[in-house]
User: What shape does this take?
Amino acid sequence: MKLGIFGAGYVGLVTAVCFAEKGHDVIIQDIAKEKIATLQSGGLPIFEESLENMLQQNSKRLHFTHDVSKVISECDVIFICAGTPQDENGKADLSQVEAVTKEISRLSTSDKIIVIKSTVPPGTTEKMEQLANNQKENSLKYSFVHNPEFLRQGKAVYDFLNPSRIVIGTSDKESFNIINDLYQNWNAPIIETDCKSAELLKYAANSFLAMKISYINMISQLSDQLGTNIDDIAAGIGLDPRIGGDFLKAGIGFGGSCFPKDLQAIGNAAAEIEVELPFIKQTSEINKKQGELFFEKIKVFSKGLNNKKIALLGLSFKPFTDDLRSAPSLALADRLISEGAQITAFDPLVRIFPVSGVQVAASLEEAIKDADITVLVTEWPEFKKLLRIENIENMSKPVIFDGRNMFSLEEIKNLSNQLTLHYESIGRPPVSNLSVKNQILI
Assistant: This one.
């Protein structure tokens, strides 16, 4: 089956490449000509683990264009993977989804099944179906399906090929059967539902995961004050099979293109029909506060940040991606800069950082050289080498603030037996063998 994809972003490219891997011919359209040129030359405009190799392996089945009519004329099943960013009021901006829908209706010469993969507020898919069918000047049939994605950035290819579930929302049985057949080579349960339920399911899933993160972060704030160990607490909670251990890792907070945006969008959608969702609001508030509290820890310890040299390790919102959208590093860097700190940052994938005054280093070693305070923001595996004695000694001051609880307290204590060190994390007691004299020097 030849498939059409509108949108060559994270979701669109992963969808296209993975369907090609399953043997389908796929045409991908995007209005950004530079992006299409990069893809046509065998490159990728984004970083996503395994995606480049799979793209090259399936190059004969993948076709890239900025020509809308080519996709519409050659494909009977079309996926809309357009962006739905927040508008100035925090609502999902559906203009790209609507524009694609209008073009499909205007240019089609045969019946189409249109699958919306973009995350959209409940009711959107039905509205797009009405828009397409009301606009047409022919007897063609446009059947809409909502088929949400559940992809983790950095693991998106794996998640697409090994899903925990596949959700197909449509009121048209024939369309369901066709999309169901499309996924016949996937070993995952299929959830057949209506469009609106599929849309809400996606928001509910993301909101629940974000809420779980904020819950453990809320408990970490209490743990900080009590001097208890949030890692032990999270492990004990997570062993309960009714709860599970995933997303119970205390840290500086979540970011990315999904959780912050989706929380805002579902909150706004509920407000429009006068339904209160207090958990949603509090999830966002806790996440914001978590970053503020981490900054205050650094500020209080340093007794002023003016002219302090700060090494910021990790800029992307999570490891294995270069995505900076709503990354905790952005707000933290802004706060540090506003206090007069001098920041040198390093991230394995990020080369350009949009906060003025932050210098981006080429390596961890360069970033921490002569640093007064080293701050871990993203838990890249290669940052484990930070605890090498030569790296600690390369700092001006042996002070580490770990925003991801990347290191166990046991390994920090063992290291402090070998050298001078001050280490603070989230929801756990600090480990320090700095004398009062050394603390004053810092």
User: Anything to note?
Assistant: The mean pLDDT is 95. Residues 153 and 321 are 6 Å apart (CA to CA). DSSP finds 17 helices and 15 strands in the chain. The chain has two domains: 2-193, 195-442.
